[in-house]
Specification:
about 160 residues, alpha/beta, Rossmann fold, about 20% helix, about 30% strand
């Protein structure tokens, strides 16, 4: 699917999914971040999060110690609607060897979640319904991840409920 086809399909929301590789090899993700109408909700997960950050001008680095299939305690600022009602911190599954470099985050993105060591775990666009999560809300290692996904789907107008 091309960027033009994706936008022409009139999505109610966009998920930039996890996957192997880096944002430069993530198909249309970087181009889509630049072309997506501002009002369409977007959620980037892992590689999708990295694509969102890089697509808006941030930098991605390689973690000296890759983290695959490990839970971590995620701290959040309490202001991101996707984390509304979540404990602080909460447990989430990490599966990545790349990460968004905190000091490079563009002015349009706000840091919303991090781990104790300071690594960026989530961002939110300051004036668009766009979000990125380095951790995996869909993972069995993220016990309350379905709540975050339901909150994102609510932004798209799709009605679902958490289990």
């Amino acid at each position: 699917m091309s960027v033009e086809e994706a936008i022409a399909s009139k999505p109610t929301g966009v998920l930039l999914s996890p996957g192997p590789g880096n944002p430069d090899s993530a198909g249309i993700c970087l181009e889509l971040v630049g072309a997506l109408p501002a009002e369409i909700p977007l959620l980037g997960v892992c590689l999708g999060h990295q694509s969102l950050v890089q697509g808006l001008g941030g930098a991605i680095g390689r973690d000296p110690v890759p983290v695959h299939g490990k839970p971590a305690m995620i701290h959040h600022d309490g202001l991101c609607p996707l984390f509304d009602g979540m404990p602080n911190p909460f447990s989430a599954g990490r599966y990545h060897s790349l990460f968004a470099i905190r000091e490079s985050l563009p002015d349009c993105l706000r840091l919303t979640a991090w781990i104790e060591e300071g690594t960026v775990m989530a961002v939110q666009h300051i004036d668009r319904p766009w979000f990125g999560m380095q951790f995996h809300p869909e993972s069995i290692l993220t016990p309350q991840g379905d709540r975050m996904l339901v909150k994102f789907l609510a932004l798209t107008g799709e009605g679902v409920s958490a289990r």
